[in-house]
Amino acid sequence: MTSPPDTRRVANRILAYEAVQLMSRFAHANGGDLIALLVFTGVWTSNTAHLRNERSRYAGLHDIPPDSQRRPISEAALSDLLCIPRDIQDRYVAALVADGVMERRGGGLVVPAAVFTRPEMLAGTNEIYARLVEMLARLRNAGFTVGPDDSPQS
Questions:
Q1: Closest listed residue to residue 22, CA positions, set 102, 140, 125
Q2: CB 72 within 8 A of CB 97
Q3: Which of 18, 68, 72, 102 could form a cystine bridge with 96, CB 3.0-4.6 A?
Q4: Residue 44: CA atoms inside 13 Å, Cβ hemisphere, count?
Q5: Are the C-beta atoms of 63 and 93 separated by less than 8 Å?
Q6: 139: closest CA among 25, 1, 52, 9?
Q7: pTM of structure
Q8: Residue 32 and residue 89: Cα distance in Å, rounded?
Q9: By CB neighbour count within 10 A (0-12 exposed, 13-18 middle, 19+ buried), where does 107 fall?
Q10: What is the pLDDT along the chain (154 residues), one digit of tens a residue?
Q11: Which helix (H) or strand (E) holds 110?
């Protein structure tokens, strides 16, 4: 049995390219501010981190986790996660709260479920999904395979 080819460098290039493209696209679509996008995304992904392995619940486009399933993230934890100085983060949090896309709740920050029902958010979810499918196809074409036994040895 032969080992699969080592595709770590090409996989890294593909992933990095897609990450920059997505961040740029969504920053432009949301006022052109990458830091605001990072703060917003850091909050909502933390709010629903415990649901990442749910395969049947909250999986479809319109099957949005309700507010009761969202866990607040403290501002200190968000700062640690994003590596953003608190004074900068605090300005962005205040602006996102004022814009109604983020709330202070339960000792932390939450992006309410209603935000994800907005047409631009649904369109963004569709775009991310399409780019993911394209990225996976590029990775496969580059020789990348998925599975615990497929990773090259160090």
A1: 125
A2: no
A3: 102
A4: 18
A5: no
A6: 9
A7: 0.85
A8: 17
A9: exposed
A10: 677 788 889 999 999 999 999 888 888 877 889 999 999 999 999 999 999 987 888 999 999 999 999 999 999 999 999 999 999 999 999 999 999 999 999 899 999 999 999 999 999 899 889 989 999 999 999 888 876 655 555 5
A11: strand 108-110
> Do 66 and 112 contact (CB within 8 A), yes or no?
no
d(CA 136, CA 142): 10
Q: How far apart are CA 111 and CA 73, in angstroms?
A: 10
The whole-angstrom separation of Cα 141 and Cα 35 is 33
* The dihedral sign for the CA sequence 85, 124, 101, 69: negative
CA-angle at 127, arms to 83 and 66, nearest 5°: 70
Name all domains of the chain by residue range, CATH numbers in brackets. 8-53+63-141 (1.10.10.10)
Q: Using CA atoms, how far apart are residues 46 and 102, in angstroms rounded to an integer?
A: 13
Query: 103 φ, ψ to 5°?
Result: -130, 150
Residue 150, token pair as written in the block: 């497929």
